[in-house]
Design a protein that fits this description.
This protein has about 375 residues and is α/β, with parallel strands linked by helices. It has helices at about 10, 20-25, 65-70, 80-95, 110-120, 135-145, 160-175, 200-215, 270-280, 285-330, 360-365; strands at about 50-55, 60-65, 105-110, 130-135, 150-155, 160, 180-185, 215-220, 245-250, 260-265, 370. The strands form 2 sheets. Strands 3, 4, 5, 6, 7, 8, 9, 10 and 11 form a 9-stranded mixed β-sheet that branches. Strands 1-2 form a two-stranded antiparallel sheet.
C-alpha cells in the first residue's frame, strides 16, 4: 500500500529526534560501550536498590539490580526491547497476521495514547473518519481538536452495520467536500459503551468495505481477553491481507490501568508517525511499567497468563450476571438491553425517551460537525 496519502500535514512535518534515533544503538550494544550522546543519569545514583512485588497467591517477583536499573532509566521511544520481543511473539501466536513479516509493534503510554497519536498522524481538518454511533466518548474528545468530519454509523447487536457504512461512505464521497475518507474506528469485542461483540461474518464485511474505500482500520481492542464463553473471534489484524489495520491493545483491563502500558501493531510506515510523535512528547513509554509487566509475563509463562485471564473472566462474568439480574428485577418493561458476552459494559435503551435527547447525538453535535447516517 501507498501510505503517503494517509499521513496528515502535521505528521509529515515531524522530524526524528537525533538523540532518540541514536539511542536505538543501545538495543544490542557492547557492554563496554560508554554512552555520551545524551543526558542519561547514572543509575548508581538512583535511590532505589531493589524491588520486590507480591503477586496474587503470594509468589514474589523480584527485579534484579540490572533489570531495575533499566526500568529506572530512559528507554527507546518504541519500547523496552525484551518486552517488545515478548509482545511480538504473543501477537504472532494470538493473531497470526497474514503480513506479519511486514509488520511491527511499538509500546505506548496506555492504549489511548497510541490511538490519539494515530489520529494526529492520519487526520487533516475536514478529512472523514468513520465511527460507530454510539461511540466511546473519549475518542470523540480526541477528535475534537483535529476538526475532521465524522461519518457516524448506526449499530445493532453486532456493532457497526455494513449496509449503513456503505451508504454513509458513498454520501461522504459525493458531498463535494475537500476532505477524504481515511480511517474507520471500531471496538470489535465487548464494545465501550454498547457491550456488543462483532460476529466473524460482520468483521469480514467491514474489512471488505474498508478495502473498497481504501480506509485504515483502527482496531481498538482492550477487552479482547475478557470474553466469558472462551470464544475468541478473529481480529481484524488476523484478516489483514493489505496492511491497512492499526491494532491497539492494552494491559489496563487485565493487569493494571495505572501502569499505563498499551501497544500498537501495524505497518511500519504508520507506526513511524506515532513513534516520531512520542519522541517529541513523552520520549518513551514508562520503562519501569514495561520491565514489571515483562517480568510478570515471563514468570507466568503462557499457561500462567491463560490462568490469570480465566480467573478475571470468571470474576467479571459474575459481575455481569449480578447486573443483568438487577436489570431484570428493576427495569423490565422500562429499558431494553442485550446481555454482553464479555467486557465490562451493558448498554441500556429507554424506548420512551425521544431520540433528540440521546446524549451521544449531543456529543457528536457539540464536539464536531458530523455527517450522520441513519
Amino acid at each position: 500500500m501507498d501510505y503517503s496519502k494517509f499521513i496528515s500535514k502535521l505528521s509529515s512535518r515531524r522530524k526524528p529526534s537525533c538523540i532518540s534515533e541514536l539511542r536505538r544503538a543501545l538495543d544490542n550494544c557492547s557492554p563496554s560501550l560508554v554512552w555520551l550522546a545524551s543526558g542519561m543519569p547514572n543509575p548508581e545514583k538512583f535511590p532505589f536498590r531493589e524491588m520486590t512485588v507480591t503477586l496474587e497467591g503470594g509468589k514474589k517477583l523480584t527485579l534484579s539490580k540490572e533489570t531495575l536499573s533499566a526500568g529506572l532509566q530512559y528507554g527507546p521511544s518504541h519500547g523496552y526491547l525484551p518486552f517488545r520481543n515478548q509482545l511480538k511473539r504473543m501477537v504472532e501466536q494470538w493473531h497470526a497476521p497474514p503480513r506479519w513479516a511486514e509488520s511491527d509493534l511499538i509500546v505506548t503510554v496506555g492504549n489511548q495514547d497510541g490511538i490519539s497519536k494515530a489520529l494526529d498522524m492520519l487526520l487533516d481538518p475536514e478529512d472523514f473518519i468513520v465511527v460507530p454511533d454510539p461511540c466511546y466518548s473519549d475518542f470523540l474528545c480526541m477528535l475534537s481538536s483535529l476538526a475532521p468530519q465524522i461519518v457516524a454509523v448506526s449499530v445493532d447487536d453486532q456493532g457497526m452495520r455494513p449496509d449503513i457504512l456503505q451508504s454513509a461512505l458513498e454520501k461522504a464521497i459525493s458531498s463535494g467536500s475537500t476532505g477524504i475518507p481515511k480511517a474507520l474506528y471500531l471496538v470489535p469485542n465487548s464494545c465501550n459503551p454498547t457491550g456488543t461483540n462483532m460476529g466473524e461474518e460482520r468483521r469480514q464485511e467491514i474489512y471488505a468495505i474498508a478495502q473498497q474505500y481504501d480506509l485504515i482500520i483502527l482496531e481498538d481492542d482492550p477487552y479482547c481477553f475478557l470474553q466469558f464463553n472462551d470464544k475468541y473471534l478473529p481480529s481484524f489484524l488476523s484478516m489483514d491481507v493489505d496492511g491497512r489495520v492499526l491494532r491497539f491493545d492494552s494491559f489496563s483491563k487485565v493487569v493494571s490501568s495505572g501502569l499505563r502500558i498499551g501497544f500498537v501493531t501495524g505497518p511500519p510506515p504508520l507506526l513511524q508517525g506515532i513513534t516520531l510523535h512520542m519522541q517529541a512528547s513523552c520520549i518513551c513509554p514508562p520503562m519501569l511499567s514495561q520491565v514489571l509487566i515483562h517480568e510478570l509475563l515471563t514468570s507466568w509463562g503462557d499457561e500462567g497468563f491463560k490462568k490469570h485471564i480465566s480467573d478475571i473472566c470468571q470474576f467479571y462474568k459474575e459481575q455481569r450476571d449480578a447486573m443483568i439480574q438487577a436489570l431484570k428485577t428493576h427495569l423490565t418493561g422500562i429499558c431494553e438491553w442485550i446481555v454482553p458476552e464479555g467486557g465490562i459494559f451493558v448498554w441500556l435503551k429507554n424506548p420512551h425517551v425521544m431520540q433528540p435527547c440521546n446524549p451521544w447525538n449531543y456529543v457528536l453535535q457539540h464536539f464536531i460537525r458530523a455527517v450522520a447516517a441513519s
